[in-house]
Amino acid sequence: MTTDVQMTVNGARHRVAVADDDLLLDVLRRLGITSVREGCGVGACGACTVLAEDHSVSSCLARAVRYDGVPLTTADGLAEDDDVVEEFVAAGAMQCGYCIPGFVLMGHELLAQNPAPTREEIAAHLEGNICRCGTYQEICSAIEATARRRQAENERRSA
Amino acid sequence: MLGETRVAAGGAVGERWARTDARAKVRGELLYAADQPLRPCLDVVVHRSTRPHALIGSVDTERAMAVDGVVAVVTGAQLYKLFGNALMTGPAFSDQPCLAVDRVRYIGEPVAAVLARGLAPARTAADEIEVDYTELEPVHDVDLAVAGGPYVHDVLRPSVVFGDLKHLRGKRDTNVNYEYTLRRGDVAEAAAAEGGRTVHEEFWCPPTHHVPIELPFTAAWRDGDRLEILSATQTPSYVRQSVADLLGIPLNAVRVRSAPLGGSFGAKMYDRLEPLAAVLAWTQRTAVRITASREEAFLLTTRHGAAVTGSMTADKDGRIVAATADVRYDTGAYADVGPRITAKSGMVATGPYRVENVDVRSRCVYTNKPSAGPFRGFGVPQVTWSHESLVDELARECGVDPAEFRRRNLLREGDVAPVGTPMHSADFAGCLDAVTEAVGWDTPLQREEGRLRRGRGVAVGVKAVLTPTIANAVLQLNQDASATLLISTVDMGQGSDTIMAQIAAEALCLGEGQVRVVAADTDVTPYDTITAGSRSTYHTGNAVRRAADAMRDKLLELAAERFGVAVTDVKLTGDGLVSAENQQKVSIPELLHGHFGARGTTLTTEANFTTSWVPYDHETGQSERVTEHWFAGAVAVQLTVDTATGRVHVEHLAVAGDVGRAINPKLVEQQLTGAAIMGVGHALFDQMVFDEGQIVNGTLLDYQLPSVLDVPDKITPIIVESPHRSGPYGAKGVGETTIIPLAPAIANAVRDAIGIRFPRLPLTPERILTALAEQEAGA
Ligand code: FES
Ligand code: FES
């Protein structure tokens, strides 16, 4: 059984035929979105993370048909001047880089829910994402820096 | 000729340049091998053995062939008919077929391959294959395998590559495929001396897995009489040779491209998916793609489990006078590079200490498990687990502080190591001092806090760099003063593209972003032994430096000609070339434009860097020059043990490595820290569990890896620099330095906290609780 669905990724709409058991991960990669990657296939590493309406989803476990029309965001689709991306670059929060897009999206999700997370809250939110290169400290610092930056911008705006 | 010793003044070396591709990595725009656009490929899925040791009777492929979308099903026996013994590959022994021929040797071994249009039909068909087995008795335990049969291989088949393995050819009735011995002085006499103290123990390190987050991937296609491969590999030059040998075609008929790797740590090197992809593409005259799942990745290679029986003796003055180690590496069903690991680790199995009497026996042993191969540290963490646990106990026996005891016995500059080679640029004492100071080693410790017990531990590590090896670099300086660097080093997260750019930029006074490194492509980039063993900064770095120096010399000559002055009068600066005599100036773009009379031109230089050694003596293991250089590192840790849960919590981890000279301190710190976090996993929970040859935790739901919650409260990475006399700007590698002594440092701190020595890794909460209960029962 295949269904015609509309995948809405980073604002662009794609009509695609998907089988009932097609994984969101595979469908996105078929669309050429390779920032979404498989690391484990069982929801245990976070390399395949996407945001669906601002909520993180492990696309290796998600059926594509269920995301018909749901706005999806992947790291490569973030704004050119995305603040989380900029702070990751500034903090040197990458080694091999394979896991990093997943962490960037987790950072976005967290900061949308909690604009001033503590270090513990950041760690708790990132617990399901694995960086085998061990870049955790820089990743956490980059998310903290983004929070500070947003706060400073808000203060400037309201001043 | 302009000498090599002139100091460049580029301002690139020692700077914290951002990684090349930093932004692309963060946005996910960097293309790893599996992300690259390819021509249409058939998907390959293999059918795997369900038996640890069995003869293959028939392989029934009929039902698989009937699956819609299946193009071909290929068995090992079919391939053997075509390729004969060339089907057997491996870096040290030619013992591994890409599909089992007449016998399977581990659960999960590939037996037949399905080629299909799409992954789904390939998977379905692979499940439909039926194999008729005649079971053989398996051997799972490394010590049973040493003791005798069943034998995993009937005869040993050392590869032709290494002359020093020749004596093993055709040897039968053994599972020991290599043995290294190190002998010096008289251990028995030293151990019997008056007033001496000896400690001994049986140690065990379980097999572990690398788990780079990027999965293994190889694609191959045939174009006429050429074979092209795109593979996630650390060893493109090796793969080209291996595939050319396998197919019996010239090197220039094989093109191997790599891509940036999403981590590797030793997992993606030598023969992994490439031989299978190559023979399928070649024989079927098609394009194929193999994407391993995580479960399959666990079967491709592992870190050697190792048993070590060790002892260490101190004399009445607290000097280490004797040390022994009997090391058995479980290399699984195929030797891979195990024999090399056995020797390289055996030669440092007694640690970074001045010991006059040593006796080491290090063996590489076949068992019916997935093949073990290189892993960050190349077998040395397993022997370090032994010597750093022993030296700690010995210090306690002697009533001396463990850090101070080590300090008194450490090898110093110019000392001769037990293997017979003098030490240079290996500042163990400096590393030890730095880490102990960082954790406040001499300050008082609050030992008890409710149910928590607090302790501190330290450990030191030594490893010899792979020698001899070969590196090459080709440098193109473009007319606009940007440069393109052609090397076969693979950036897998260690940052080699950035490091090599900095080394090249230094000599040419180029800035950040001006040197671009081309991804390894054997049609284009020159031979490089391997990207592994922390060898790239030193070896490829030296080739790059030589190519850059040669480029600078060319520029000076061109400018001297243009200015009409002597070459010695011209200087290369950040603003271009300047004559001291007549103050003339010219920028690189102007100079090259003037020289060639055209825009867009390139000036090319190339250089080689090859190291040499004196092979070790087969009886004594001694060599006056066994390695080009040494890695030296130390770790100090402060932690708590929760006596109710058995959990270890690391409060402060200080890690130091002597890197000679840090080309990019930020990247060095990331290597020191990243290796340390991986080491915390090895110390506390990381292990592959087998039951009768079957992996029981081969998924990431079951296999625990360090997450952000396992990161110590504080990590202090410390760069120690004792420049190497022939390193590029004094530099050496760093990728493995801090993982080597990490696990024993933690175990030593646990010993300090609760008074219990753990000889077996990892220190899981269950093990700790059991030991605490036994301690209480005993007390
Ligand atoms: S691939 Fe989806 S969580 Fe690992
Ligand atoms: S940067 Fe390599 S896995 Fe995270």
From TrEMBL, chain A:
Alphabetized UniProt keyword annotations: 2Fe-2S, Iron, Iron-sulfur, Metal-binding, Oxidoreductase
InterPro entries assigned to the protein according to its UniProt record, in alphabetical order: 2Fe-2S-bd (IPR002888), 2Fe-2S-bd_dom_sf (IPR036884), 2Fe-2S_ferredoxin-like_sf (IPR036010), 2Fe-2S_ferredoxin-type (IPR001041), 2Fe2S_fd_BS (IPR006058), Beta-grasp_dom_sf (IPR012675), Diverse_Oxidoreductases (IPR051452)
Family annotation (Pfam families): Fer2, Fer2_2
UniProt entry tagged with the keyword Phosphoprotein: no
Domain of life (superkingdom): Bacteria
UniProt-listed PROSITE patterns: 2FE2S_FER_1 (PS00197), 2FE2S_FER_2 (PS51085)
SUPFAM superfamilies the UniProt entry points to: 2Fe-2S ferredoxin-like, CO dehydrogenase ISP C-domain like
Keyword Membrane: no
2Fe-2S ferredoxin-type domain mapped to chain residues: 3-78
Record-given protein name: 2Fe-2S iron-sulfur cluster binding domain-containing protein
Organism expressing this protein natively: Pseudonocardia xinjiangensis
Lineage: Bacteria, Bacillati, Actinomycetota, Actinomycetes, Pseudonocardiales
Automatic annotation (TrEMBL), chain B:
Ranges in a coiled coil: none
InterPro entries, alphabetized: Ald_Oxase/Xan_DH_a/b (IPR000674), Ald_Oxase/Xan_DH_a/b_sf (IPR036856), Ald_Oxase/xanthine_DH-like (IPR016208), AldOxase/xan_DH_MoCoBD1 (IPR008274), AldOxase/xan_DH_MoCoBD2 (IPR046867), AldOxase/xan_DH_Mopterin-bd_sf (IPR037165)
Source superkingdom: Bacteria
Taxonomic classification: Bacteria, Bacillati, Actinomycetota, Actinomycetes, Pseudonocardiales
One family name in Pfam for this protein: MoCoBD_2
Residue ranges constituting the Aldehyde oxidase/xanthine dehydrogenase a/b hammerhead domain according to the UniProt record: 27-137
Native source organism of the sequence: Pseudonocardia xinjiangensis
SUPFAM superfamilies: CO dehydrogenase molybdoprotein N-domain-like, Molybdenum cofactor-binding domain
Protein name stated in the entry: Xanthine dehydrogenase family protein molybdopterin-binding subunit
